[in-house]
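Sample pair:
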Amino acid sequence: MERNEGSIDRVIRVVLGLILLGLWAANKVPYGTVILIVGLVALITGLTGFCALYKVLGINTCKEC
């Protein structure tokens, strides 16, 4: 997989993913399953630097790629 996320994009996704997973773990949000899935997707895409939706839409925020 080719990276298509820039550094800032990746940091935002990892932070957002961790926040959502923390809220899910603390049972502080309604629709827990949705929050879990969104948090996991944000975390995984942030860690890998690849977003399938970006690929489909032709978006690339990675300047060094």
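Residues 7-57 form one domain.
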